[in-house]
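Incident review: delayed structure delivery

Summary: a single-chain prediction request sat in the queue longer than the usual turnaround. Root cause was a stuck worker, restarted by the on-call engineer. No data loss occurred. The affected request and its eventual output are reproduced below so the record is complete for anyone auditing the incident later.

Affected input:
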Amino acid sequence: MRYSVNEWTKSGSPWVWLNAGAVAICVIMVVGLLGLIAVRGLAHFWPADVMQATYTQGEQSRRILGEMVQDEMVPAEQLRGAGIQVPEGVEALRRDLLKVGNRDFLPADFVWAMDNMITERSHPEMVMVAERLEWGNFYGYLREIREAGETLARHDGYAKSEEYLNVWAEFQTRLERVLEIRDQILEIEKDKIGSINYEIERLRLQERSLELEQSTDAQAYADIEARRAELNADYEVLQQDLIDLYSQINRDSFTAEIADGREVEIRLSKVVRAFLPNNMGTGDKLMHYGAKLWEFLSDEPREANTEGGIFPAIFGTVMMVILMSVLVTPFGVIAAVYLREYAKQGFVTRLIRIAVNNLAGVPSIVYGVFGLGFFVYFLGGTIDDLFFPEAKPSPTFGTGGLMWASITLALLTVPVVIVATEEGLARIPRSVREGSLALGATKFETLIKVVLPMASPAMMTGVILAIARAAGEVAPLMLVGVVKLAPSLPLDGNYPFLHLDQKFMHLGFHIYDVGFQSPNVEAARPLVYATAFLLVVVIALLNFSAIAIRNHLREKYKALEM
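Output delivered after worker restart:
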């Protein structure tokens, strides 16, 4: 028996099984982590039922309306220390976290309540949930609809009835009208007035440039003034349209009864959507879930990034990675080709390789500090002095922006591309190069038509791995261009269309901001999970793409290797 065990050990089988077990554990942990993040994040968009109950604490009782968010067991000793009576023999009691909303009318929109103190639980069909532009969700019973302060329809009951359905239908009709007007307002404010303001600013800079040059060209000044007058006239027309639209959108309002019995009035212009979660079937909830998920992916954030969507962060992340890849690919490949194919293999070359490998291990925040000092302050300030003196003292490129963030990440990831490309070049047999040269090709032709195509799997793998790393970096971006909120995209219809000097949002920084800087932690927590899941999925897709591209190129050039 001892002999067979020794033979089995010498054969290497234990290490194979050990490696297989380690890989299996890693896969299970990764899948489990993704599953946890997905469940915690994506479940937030599901329209949960709203509970009505009576909460009794001591001699005081009050009605509560809200969604059950989570529950936990609390030790009895901790409860007794907080002055809560706990029956003898009980080791722990459950407490529930309820989202009661109505942050503008109640002390807090999330409350902890002891489960044994909650009685008379029910889920009334008439409970309304209204998502708002400000103050978060509203929970209550719809009472009346008003137009310019006059009551158009009212319902005072708590049971579902035909009268209530008529009031609800009128509410939805007027809400649709308000949403259409809001879209018109956004189109005027962001697109039309935004374009006018952008062009007026360009005229101001042109005029300032003429002043700095001490130009006496009266016609140039006259043309600028004439164009400014045209833009101001267009602005006045749009401003009047906005006044009319705002008077229309602020016309309608509704009153609702909240949990403590008060009736409050809310303008419909503050509502994003309203629904009756306890009266929705599975199909309706699925449609609502799809609409919320699409809003998360395509809309702008609101309420300190705890509501709305993250499209500016998605767009900023993708745009930055694209620019970074465009910058890092030629520099990384050219450096690797020079070191492997042209440089004399001696002490200096080995020293450069050591330096490149060490750069790959430098903390990313160091690159951020370097980018801030060299790219932003030195290069950006120099560019402003040479090309944008009319904009000073306001910096153009002398402040953080999309270009400097992309260059900083390109500098951070270029060692990955260099090392991967060099390894790919080193695996190409020398006989392939010699055969090409023997057939009359020059060294450059051999490099372009033979060596680089055969090394392309390693090159592409290095580039995409660099992209995957850059997509998740946060620390350097905090110094060179990423901000908490930048709803204006760096790519728009205003010349020069791609604004490299503009600040932008990033998924990684969005996670940090919502998770650690939000004033409402409980409201922000689900969005942290959802955004983290989205970022992990993006990075995972990039890695899977690297494997697929590498395998495709490897199969394509397998004949050359043979």
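Verification: The radius of gyration is 31 Å.
Action items: add queue-age alerting; document worker restart procedure.
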